[in-house]
Amino acid sequence: MFDAMKNLAAAHGFARFYALPPVDLSQWREDATKAYVGVQLPYALPALFPWARSILLLVYAYAPYPPDCRIPAYYIASNHAYHAHKALAKQIAALGCRCEPIEPPLRALCLASGVGVQGKNGLLRIDPFGSRIVLFALLTDGCAPVPVTDAPSVPCPESCTACINACPPHAIHPHGLPVSQIVQEECMRYYMDDAPYPPIVYRLQQKHMGCEICMDACPFNACNAPVSPAAEISAAFALPRLASGDDTEARRLVGKNMTRHGKLTLEAQNFLSRQE
Fold it and tell me: Cα dist. 191→38, 186, 198, 211 in Å?
């Protein structure tokens, strides 16, 4: 059954597929509580989902757009992977298995299961994709956990400060913190879940919806050659179009839940004002 599920996942574009044990993530919960982030995510997985034999971890790898492109490659990929993992869950259920999407702390699940490594910028890296990945997970009773056989991802060298030096608000600290080296309140992305943003974010923002500066600087992401966005994507994110309020197509491409309250329009107006 594992091989059948893996083949279905590959057909939906997922580059890696793992069947992991539903581990308890209480240590993550403790650390997250100290940092006041993500504490609403389910962490006591064996107790909450006693029927689940494994968590199917889906890794969607993507190519970045050029660093000077304002279009968010991550969110284009994330929206595609979101719909793909929903369709995959239905296909696995059609095989006679129980299969349900779940949103646990995926980075913590990966680290506890031997998948990938956490970079100094707090992001998970899975070689050979670097941190240019999108993660989704499904619970199933259809297969047992399968040991992770990937070669371990290489940790960040102690001497490397590429992401630390690149971060405009200096949110990445060199000496570490309880959860990672990121101070959430100093990271631009922390303030970009909803619109409008604080003035400092509009002043420093380089891309729609998020920030990829530390990812662009990371040597482990050098393997990901940039590609140009498709013509329909470029047209949807044309600044005059978005600034006028015409954001329907762009929101379809990146997901409507991520672009409420005129987020893309406000961003486009800000980018245009900075060009004047």
Answer: 14, 9, 7, 11
